[in-house]
Structure to design on (299 residues):
């Protein structure tokens, strides 16, 4: 299982990757991409493992987009009065167990104390017995409201409500790929800089030139990355034209990563050689410069 460097991706990007990555099953137990165990949830459609979003990272719209089958999403739909009975059972599946546990604990604690025949203890016991009634009534009222709401359905309250489910899934797939490319590029950039420093110790001019090219590559990569992410997250119209733009950005990101791969390969092969063997490395650097210039000019 991949352990992620928290300095490479934003907390939101990490959370999106976690929510959109496949569940891993090991010995009949389920885990997310961060090796955190998942609870099996029973819904009307059967048993399933659901990855719940972490609190305080995603907005409600983002939860509905990236974790539509989660308990958190079900509660959002219930709040917006567009829930189904599947949402109801998912959101409140633990209520009976919590209620039963509550009363078991109350009876275990209070019954022995009531034998003291203290009026205030008896009053306290009665109050504690009545406390859950309001919440139970509220939950039952929600169930009734969902049943009466003939138009209740799992709507997507993101900016892309007019898109089909398949279109949204496709663009989420693109977003996941782009975030993973960002992580891959950052890893390779770190490796390239480390090798450049070993091969061309500063203050050599070659060192400064090579480091500058790698930094420029990162600048261009980040620009293409941010544009692609913005196209996916903030555009209202998921058109075929926008999809082509996203594909073009992904292609550019992959080419930049390939250039870093080539540079790392040559640096490794020439790590112990003399300066006369640097021609291939210089050629790759020049090729990266041309690529960076062409992308910058196109933008």
């Amino acid at each position: 299982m991949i352990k992620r460097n928290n300095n490479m991706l934003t907390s939101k990007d990490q959370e999106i990757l976690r929510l959109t990555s496949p569940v891993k099953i090991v010995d009949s137990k389920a885990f997310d991409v961060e090796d955190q165990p998942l609870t099996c949830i029973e819904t009307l459609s059967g048993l399933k493992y659901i990855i719940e979003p972490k609190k305080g990272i995603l907005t409600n719209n983002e939860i509905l987009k990236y974790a539509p089958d989660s308990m958190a999403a079900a509660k959002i739909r219930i709040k917006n009065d567009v829930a189904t009975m599947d949402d109801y059972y998912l959101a409140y599946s633990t209520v009976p167990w919590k209620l039963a546990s509550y009363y078991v604990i109350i009876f275990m604690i209070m019954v022995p104390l009531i034998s003291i025949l203290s009026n205030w203890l008896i009053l306290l016991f009665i109050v504690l017995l009545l406390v859950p009634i309001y919440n139970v009534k509220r939950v039952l009222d929600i169930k009734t409201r969902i049943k009466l709401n003939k138009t209740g359905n799992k709507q997507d309250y993101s900016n892309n409500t007019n898109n089909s489910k398949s279109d949204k899934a496709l663009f989420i797939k693109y977003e996941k790929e782009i975030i993973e490319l960002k992580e891959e590029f950052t890893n390779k950039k770190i490796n390239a800089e480390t090798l450049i420093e070993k091969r061309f110790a500063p203050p050599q001019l070659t060192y400064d030139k090579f480091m500058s090219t790698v930094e420029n590559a990162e600048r261009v990569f980040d620009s293409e990355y941010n544009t692609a992410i913005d196209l996916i997250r903030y555009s209202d119209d998921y058109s075929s034209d926008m999809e082509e733009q996203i594909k073009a950005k992904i292609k550019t990101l992959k080419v930049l990563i390939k250039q870093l791969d080539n540079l790392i390969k040559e640096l490794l092969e020439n790590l112990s050689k003399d300066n006369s063997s640097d021609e291939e490395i210089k050629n790759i650097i020049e090729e990266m410069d041309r690529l960076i210039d062409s992308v910058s000019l196109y933008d």
Observations:
- The two ends are 37 Å apart (CA to CA).
- The chain has two domains: 1-158, 165-298.
- Strands lie at 24-26, 29-31, 40-43, 46-49.
